[in-house]
Amino acid sequence: MAATDRIFVAQLAGLPVFGPDGEAIGKVRDVVASLRTDRQPPRVLGIVVELVTRRRIFVPMLRVAGIEPHAVVLSTGSVNMRHFHQRPNEVVAVGQLLDARIGVESGAVSAVVVDVAMEPTRTRDWEMSRVAVRERTGRLGRRGPVQVLRWEDVVGLGMAELSSQPQGAQQLLAQFDTMRAADVANALRDLPAKRRYEVADALDDERLADVIEELPEDDQKDMLAHLDEERAADILEAMNPDDAADLLAELPELDKNRLLELMEPEESAPVKRLLEYSFDTAGGLMTPEPVALTPDATIAEALARARNPELTPALSSMVFVCRPPTATPTGRYLGCVHLQRLLREPPSDLVAGALDTDLPRLGPTASLIEVTKYFATYNLVCAPVVDDEDHLLGAVTVDDVLDHLLPDDWRETLHHEEEGVANA
């Protein structure tokens, strides 16, 4: 390995990882170290690399050929492709050390860990030799200076202390800030339960709602159970109504009804409507918040609605046209306009002139198989769900169909791939 000076873990996390031939492998997500009982610096065992498939694997430090300012390069050899599992007495630096509250040996000073540094030893091993800390001043709006101390000079970084003391989450949230919700969900599942809950408590409602939507069912229920009732209701309000309904449907009846009572009426109403349908029907799959406009809306208005960044690509691919009201269940459904058609029409024209009135509709009781055949037949990623009285009830998107076609544990299967070995 090329000679490398002291490296701070927070700067290492997120760097791209390349194989010896320059091929992209993934990104560094954490550093794994083995804690010692004598308070000597922990030995760095390796790095956690997130592959492009989102699986996280462990790469020993002996396989790291070089650490550059903008990348990590691996040496030639085999890599164990088994999903990373943390062992007893191992610590993950980003996940467990950052934001930990510690004491300073030289005095009765309370501080917070903002970073840890690792450096090579004369035996070619690596160890976590330094801890960057910020004194906890207790004064609002005031932040103490950062000091870089030797590992031996701080108190409170043993496994017992890390497992029992409360931690903040600022440094870890900074790592998550640029990650997709699905990747944050994946990362949370790798954290110890205590740390996972601390991060959940620190995330804002919108972000936590997005992350919970990407968790497997059991983890969703566990996370919701951790939150107090008021915040759990707020999170459900921030979730997509169809995802909130799926989660509530898995809860005991008393818990489900209690959370629905705590939700704002305008937020709980669409969720209650979805709960009336079986989860494997068009009514149970649909979102009750499609893009719906009246026939006198212009093409420009329709495009503006489709450009809403909060819409998924599938949901923005189709605009539904109805008589007032446009909130579901709407007035009489007239037809839909495909996004490609909107792009071809003059912006000042009305959507009524671009309607696709021939596209068949899905009924709310259509089975999952019928919905799947519908998408395959008409090559769509979004479809209208209309009742017998021509009211638009919502829209089914292809991602919801895939979610229910895949095995119930598909997220866990992706997370825990079977063991394998690949050459880098």
Overall number of strands: 20
Task: Tell me what portion of residues adopts beta-strand conformation.
Answer: 15-25%
Return the structural class: alpha+beta
CATH architecture type of the domain at 292-405: Roll
The count of helical stretches stands at 18
Mean pLDDT: 88
Label the overall shape.
elongated
Seen as an oligomer or otherwise, the chain set is single chain
**What does the largest sheet look like?**
13 strands, mixed
Distance between the termini: 16 Å
Structure report:
The chain is 34% helix and 25% strand. The protein is of the alpha+beta class and 424 residues long. Among the domains are: 7-86, PRC-barrel domain (SH3 type barrels, Roll), CATH 2.30.30; 208-276, MgtE N-terminal domain-like (MgtE N-terminal fold, Alpha Horseshoe), CATH 1.25.60; 292-405, CBS-domain, CATH 3.10.580.10. Strands 1, 2, 3, 4, 5, 6, 7, 9, 10, 11, 12, 13 and 14 form a 13-stranded mixed beta sheet that branches. Strands 15-16-17 form a three-stranded mixed beta sheet. A two-stranded antiparallel ribbon has the order 8-20. A hairpin with a 4-residue loop joins strand 10 (101-104) and strand 11. It is elongated, with a radius of gyration of 26 Å. The model is unreliable at 415-419 (pLDDT under 50). Residues 286-353, 355-413 form the CBS domain. This is Mg/Co/Ni transporter MgtE. InterPro entries: CBS_dom (IPR000644), CBS_dom_sf (IPR046342), Mg_transptr_MgtE_intracell_dom (IPR006668), MgtE_N_sf (IPR038076), MgtE_transporter (IPR006669), PRC-brl_dom (IPR027275), PRC_barrel-like_sf (IPR011033), SH3_actinomycetes (IPR058838). Keywords: CBS domain.
